Amino acid sequence: MIIIVILFILIFNIFPIFYGIFSSIYINNSFSFSALFQTLGAKYFYISLLITTFYALFSAFISTYVSLYISKLIKFNKFAFIFLVIGWTIPPYIGVPVWRTFFEKYTDIYINPITSFISAILISSWFLIPFTSFFLYTFSETQNKKYLESFLLESNKIDIYYKKIVVPNIKGAIYSAFILNFLKAFKDFQVPWLLVEGGAPLSFGITDKGIIGATTNLEVLIYKLFNFESDISQVSSISLLTILIITSVYLLSRKLNSKIKMNISYFSKTLSYLWIFSIIYFFYILLTLAFSDSQSIYLNGNFTLKNFKYILDDGIVKSFSNTMLIAFITSLLSIILSMYFAYFLLNIKNGENILNFFNFLKIFSGLHIIIFIFYIYSKLRLLNTFTSVILMLVAKNLPFLSLLSYHYFKNFPEDLFLLAKLDNIPKNTFFFKILLPNSFPLVSSLFLLSTLNSFNAFLPPLVFLFDENKYTLSIKLYSYVGAASTQYPQWNLFGAASFATFLILLILTFLLLKISKISYIKYL
């Protein structure tokens, strides 16, 4: 079983990189660096890289800056915490199209590059804020409570306490949050694609690969070339260079070591409350779409419940059952493999370091890796099967779920492990007869997390599944409105299906928070 886990992680994280290297230099049955040199000399690559860098920088800064105040707010405001959980629950394949209706209706997002770029940054930051706020909240809670108690004896201004005591002591965590958000935004595909399909055309974006838009970052560029280019070496070259850039950014961030200054202010407070208000406005838009009889966002429709009947007749139940099947098998495999792997690592000297390395590999995840897995699947004839999605999701879950399991098992009484050794209880027997039955909170948390990941999955089913009868909920919703170039989006059906899907996700999320400790969220 241990070998299976290691193979899962290596095959889906390391092997695709080597496959990409090989594909980019092995052309027409001979080795050549022509594709790499061609990419390095291409105008479209540098324009896209520039867009990606600024998009990631602005998204990371805004999200970290706002989250710093929200992490303080949720400590004293229960409603702020609820809004944060709700925001964390909204998947991009629902959230981005909903915001798209707003920007499409009230701005010139499709023709103005600046509007396209700013809109994408705002939405990207909007999605990053919940994770970042929970992350910073966890570190702020590690501060000595005596500081807060003594400070409150002399002052009621909590903001000053955070400015003078908390923030200076969590500068490392703030910097880490900024770097994590930068890397996430650097690899972001869903926001720039689902919002404006690469953005409004740039005046200087005319290249031999078409017109580069204001949000055509590297991931969008890779996807466009993947769909329209028959030359695998070209796609592989851009993907490989993307991986090298991500690695360089990570290594450089380690060298800089906390060279960022940020604190709470009235401006961050204002932005924080605007973010909370935006959650309310988001649901106003969603409900307006879900209960309107008009497919267009430009025509005022009448209230109706028929949209829910239409989606039932349109195969939404089939998509739901597909998602549940994938989620159940993925969760089952993820739980068994991750818990057993964590137990194995608990008994070796450098177990935690191995886990940290496997989780470090997750920084390379993204569309640029999935493209290589697509080519591998095509040779194995696994495309257009649920197996292709399940294997990908299990591989994605394993490092994180193993880390959770490892820390959970570390809190078990040491005497329990010692007695098992003294009684010569086999390790497998100890795991299945003693450890597993006494880990219900962990098993429940892993199951719900894995199920949520399966429901939120968009890229694997988008790339690997072709038949409509195999669509998951995320792809079914995408089929109603598509990308920006879709001529006849069915916004009312999208709204109804999104509302139903979100309710399922919200129930799963609150179950997760009920069962597991909030401290687990620091690993998300």
From TrEMBL:
TM helices/strands, residue ranges: 7-27, 47-68, 80-102, 114-139, 160-183, 232-252, 273-292, 324-346, 358-377, 389-409, 430-452, 493-513
Protein name (Swiss-Prot/TrEMBL): ABC-type glycerol-3-phosphate transport system permease component
Family: Belongs to the binding-protein-dependent transport system permease family. MalFG subfamily.
Subcellular location: Cell membrane
Main location as per UniProt: membrane
A GO cellular component entry from the record: plasma membrane
Membrane topology, record value: Multi-pass membrane protein
Domain ABC transmembrane type-1 residue range list: 49-253, 320-512
Keywords, alphabetical: Cell membrane, Membrane, Sugar transport, Transmembrane, Transmembrane helix, Transport
Entry superkingdom: Bacteria
Pfam family, one: BPD_transp_1
PANTHER family for the chain: MALTOSE TRANSPORT SYSTEM PERMEASE-RELATED (PTHR32243), MALTOSE_MALTODEXTRIN TRANSPORT SYSTEM PERMEASE PROTEIN MALG (PTHR32243:SF50)
InterPro entries given in the database record: BP-dep_ABC_trans_perm (IPR050901), MetI-like (IPR000515), MetI-like_sf (IPR035906)
PROSITE patterns for the chain: ABC_TM1
Species assigned in the record: Thermosipho japonicus
Gene Ontology BP, a term: transmembrane transport
